[in-house]
């Protein structure tokens, strides 16, 4: 089965790559999860757009990643969430919440898949969130979760 990847898949390829996979893997995993679209001549034209979007989000090199790390570690990020009276969240803080809070605080645009939680954030207070910027560069962001 021939597919066009819409997101990076470990040990397979990056967004915009045309890959040949077994039918079951493509039909049962890649397509339902939204990691790929079926290859057609019409879809072939979308590859440039996918690659442009990937390049805009991608960290260029380790030096650029170090600059982003310094910028993120200086940033003060606050997320408001609905909580119970005891300070427990109704749900948890997601990677999308962190990305939006960083953008709102004036930080760089991040990919939600680069956010790494050591454990789920389910209560108010200050938490440390990991961000994988490059193979060799990780950033630690302090996030303050406050009650709405």
Automatic annotation (TrEMBL):
Entries under PROSITE patterns matching the protein: RIBOSOMAL_L9
One Gene Ontology cellular component: ribonucleoprotein complex
Family: Belongs to the bacterial ribosomal protein bL9 family.
One GO MF term: rRNA binding
PANTHER family according to UniProt: 50S RIBOSOMAL PROTEIN L9 (PTHR21368)
Gene3D superfamilies hit by this protein: Ribosomal protein L9, C-terminal domain (3.10.430.100), Ribosomal protein L9, N-terminal domain (3.40.5.10)
Keyword RNA-binding: yes
InterPro entries listed in its UniProt record: Ribosomal_bL9, Ribosomal_bL9/RNase_H1_N, Ribosomal_bL9_bac/chp, Ribosomal_bL9_C, Ribosomal_bL9_C_sf, Ribosomal_bL9_N, Ribosomal_bL9_N_sf
Function field: Binds to the 23S rRNA.
Ribosomal protein among keywords: yes
Residue span, Ribosomal protein L9 domain: 13-40
SUPFAM superfamilies found in the cross-reference section: L9 N-domain-like, Ribosomal protein L9 C-domain
A GO BP entry: translation
Record organism: Parenemella sanctibonifatiensis
One Pfam family linked to the record: Ribosomal_L9_C
Entry keywords, A to Z: Ribonucleoprotein, Ribosomal protein, RNA-binding, rRNA-binding
Stated name of the protein: Large ribosomal subunit protein bL9
